[in-house]
Design a protein that fits this description.
With about 300 residues, the protein is of the alpha+beta class. The chain contains 7 helices and 19 strands. An 8-stranded mixed β-sheet has the order 1-2-12-3-13-17-15-16, sandwiched between helices. It has a 6-stranded antiparallel β-sheet with strand order 5-4-9-6-7-8, with no helix packed on it. It has a 5-stranded mixed β-sheet with strand order 10-11-19-18-14.
Length: about 300
């Protein structure tokens, strides 16, 4: 969990993912010598802050977004949301402008307008994110930004033994998307890849509790092609990995851009369930994390 703890503390809200991109590139360069297959790395010019890893002869791509929710400083002490953070009066926020590091608190007035409480005015355009507070027990881990640093962490675990496949670390997912559009085009045209797994974190609900395994989503606000999802479920049943099926009518992920793509992409969202979604206290059970990694490894081998 040391790597996950470190990633949860990296400042990388939508639109400013460069810190996370730099961290991942350094991690990959340092650790890839220990992986079964040395990947081809695509990043930099033409890829913005995204990273694409190609292993062997890929047929399936894992998508994991590296951005987070947060806030942008507007004028005076006003704040504008990045993505959909839950608003909790007095929550601790951190950031940095030209005058130095910042640690302030969220304020909400009677009309619901949001601002910050701080000893000075913060420069406009500065991003503020949740202050990390890592908690770990034998059963669970809890911190801000499990969504989606845990999805990224999962992809890195799969990378260690992956022989054939692609891993795409995308940006902007929490605030409208955009990068998956050019990544899917690149993967389809250059490698003929047309199926994917979405390595992201879902919600604890009345039908998807902690401790019952990784969730395979049958639908959220969009509906994946059922024959593709059925194939994944069949492999999951034979693998003996603990999983549960999710059915939701709202929510979304990198899959939105894949479904709207000009090329015929299949997708399935597979992720561990978390409680306290989009707060500093996102909580995930270790048994579900273990099941997530195990299922991804099996699927990337069998698909």
């Amino acid at each position: 969990m040391k790597l996950l703890k470190e990633m949860c503390a990296i400042h990388a809200p939508s639109g400013n993912e460069a810190g996370m991109t730099s961290f991942l590139l350094k991690y990959i360069e340092k650790n890839k010598k220990n992986w079964k297959v040395q990947p081809k790395i695509y990043s930099g010019d033409g890829f913005q802050d995204t990273i694409v890893l190609i292993f062997g002869k890929p047929k399936t791509a894992i998508f994991a977004h590296i951005d987070s929710i947060g806030f942008t400083v507007r004028y005076g002490k006003q704040l504008v949301k990045i993505g959909g953070p839950r608003l909790i009066e007095g929550m601790d926020l951190v950031g940095e402008d030209s005058q130095g590091k910042i640690e302030c608190k969220l304020a909400i007035n009677k009309e619901g307008a949001i601002s910050y409480k701080y000893k000075r005015e913060i420069e406009r355009g500065t991003e503020l994110t949740f202050k990390p507070n890592w908690r770990e027990t034998k059963e669970y881990v809890q911190c801000c930004y499990m969504d989606n640093r845990l999805g990224v962490w999962n992809a890195l675990q799969v990378a260690e033994t992956l022989k054939n496949g692609a891993i795409a670390f995308s940006c902007y997912e929490e605030h409208g998307g955009g990068t998956v559009s050019f990544i899917q085009k690149f993967l389809f045209e250059k490698f003929k890849i047309k199926q994917s797994l979405i390595s992201d974190i879902t919600w604890v609900t009345e039908g998807v509790p902690h401790g019952k395994g990784v969730a395979i989503s049958l639908r959220d606000s969009l509906i994946p092609r059922r024959s593709y999802v059925n194939k994944i479920i069949d492999i999951a049943k034979k693998s003996k990995v603990h999983f549960q099926l999710e059915v939701e009518g709202t929510g979304g992920s990198d899959a939105k851009e894949l479904q709207m793509a000009e090329f015929p992409w299949d997708w399935c969202f597979i992720g561990a369930p978390e409680d306290n979604v989009h707060t500093p206290d996102e909580k995930v059970y270790k048994s579900d994390i273990k099941a997530m990694v195990s299922l991804y490894k099996v699927l990337m081998e069998k698909m």
